């Protein structure tokens, strides 16, 4: 009779043995291939989609893949991308926020009011705008938790109410122009990473990827668990470094890498860490997968819902501030029109499930690349928004269709 | 588990826990009652569980089994009566509090997140180092736990959705054991399982018992109860209706206690079927 957890019991197991720990290069490659075949395609379909879209637009218009246009693309995708990051958070817990556009509009107007009408500092303006966003998210969380109103309805109400708030803030003015010489506008229009620093940053990123991977692999190997082969990690880092350096080289041929884009990627990486490496991130997935099970496991489900909405609205507000900065104005149409649906579409195209519990921070990044590429390509072709709406809608359908197909394949191969 | 039931010695007289035995078990209930409005779901329930013992709680629908589970898992508080752990009277009002007292519950629906992998489910809500998850330690501990249970789980990285029913049951049980409880409460552990998987789960229950845990198993299945239980406590209409030594009791006697009559639908059916010749039955 051995007590649970004793080394004696641990040494006697047989049919339950963990599969022999594997560390080899071939095993790592094989594992990746097997997962892909089983329908766990990860980001592959979206990346393939981007390649197809870029090829098509490049063949229609020679300037699409030019350095100048890609620099613009890197700028333009940031506001929408930051909003889509927030959408990923609420979709993960199985909720939805239809009001992110209006919230971003309110934040943009708030920035204008604080900065221009009250002549306060940029930082205060950003802080107030983000605070307004956080407050709105908290409010959504309370209504959802206390009254059990579906988030679909709560945020639909918010969509109208905050659109009204935005118009009220701008009272009579069509737009509040932000001064061109303010740091915020310059950040969103003309601030680039110096050439050499950009290369260094990319090498740092690839080196960081390698260092994190090696550290994790070593501690797993020490614990007798399967780990990724160091050579496979090195190969991946080399490929990553090559791709990043080439991208920087290409962008540096004209204006370079915008700081705003670096900020966006930084936010993606932070959210990625939170989602994959913290208990809070895990509780987001758990609540989205099975809220009742999460509750019985001791997770504060209501708190998680509130946190997801606060994150989403704060990121939406941040996106609104960046949109105003990019335009150098907060106007009545900031955040209106298709911003809501584009942000949700970006998250979904990137592989976030509408039903909760599945998705990642990189989904927002890749999804927004798709959406913004289409928008940019159609603008270059002088096609108006009617075409853009139709085509974006079709791409969304294809993305969701692909996701469903992959999901069926996963189920068929017993990978959930 | 030796199945050396001595035929013919079955005795219907419930040896029932007398007042003198109170406090000898890990867990004991005395006079536990629960009302829902005018309905008395449980009245005056006594139950004792000793370390290294499997107590099956059986009863018909509406006998109060689920209410008992919910009281022991901390979902409901009893209206009257006492719950003692190691002879010390305790009260708890949340699943977390029950767990902290050493009573772990494996729910009938398992309460697993299908989108998360095995180790994430095992440590759900009690992750190690929540600000920088210690995956290595959690995975190591998960393997240790599953190894002790001699569970056949192919990989810890697959989402629970990819596992079979028996494997999921194992994961749910493993999760309950993570806090090193003294009593494990299993609500209908074999209800959704096939023949082989049921056997695996029963083996698992025996291993837990051999490790010195007290097990309360709520079940409908007489075969499983007789296969694994040491004692069988019968509930009928919210009251104790006898405690039997599982080795010395027949299914018919348990059924009689559950239904409250020796001449019941189950026994009538058994007699009728015994009367029909086999070939005739096959032709039908």
Automatic annotation (TrEMBL), chain A:
It comes from the Bacteria. It holds the Pfam family BPD_transp_2. Residues 1-27 are annotated as: Disordered. This is Xylose transport system permease protein XylH. It is a multi-pass membrane protein. It is found in: Cell membrane. Part of the binding-protein-dependent transport system for D-xylose. Probably responsible for the translocation of the substrate across the membrane.
UniProtKB/TrEMBL annotation, chain B:
PROSITE patterns: ABC_TRANSPORTER_2. InterPro entries: AAA+_ATPase, ABC_carbohydrate_import_ATPase, ABC_transporter-like_ATP-bd, P-loop_NTPase. GO terms for molecular function: ATP binding. It comes from the Bacteria. Residues 27-262 form the ABC transporter domain. Residues 1-24 are annotated as: Disordered. The keyword Phosphoprotein does not apply. Keywords: ATP-binding, Nucleotide-binding. The keyword Nucleotide-binding applies. This is ATP-binding cassette domain-containing protein. It comes from Streptomyces mutomycini. The lineage of its organism: Bacteria, Bacillati, Actinomycetota, Actinomycetes, Kitasatosporales.
